[in-house]
Amino acid sequence: GGDHTITYPILQAVAEKHGPVGLVHVDAHTDTGDRALGEKIYHGTPFRRCVEEGLLDCSRVVQIGIRGSSYDPDPYKYCRDQGFRVVPAEECWSKSLVPLMAEVRKQMGEKPVYISFDIDGLDPAYAPGTGTPEIAGLTPAQALEIIRGCKGLNVVGCDLVEVAPMYDVSGNTALLAANLLFEMLCVLPGVKTM
Question: Which PANTHER family does UniProt cross-reference here (predicted)?
Answer without folding.
Answer: ARGINASE/AGMATINASE, GUANIDINO ACID HYDROLASE, MITOCHONDRIAL
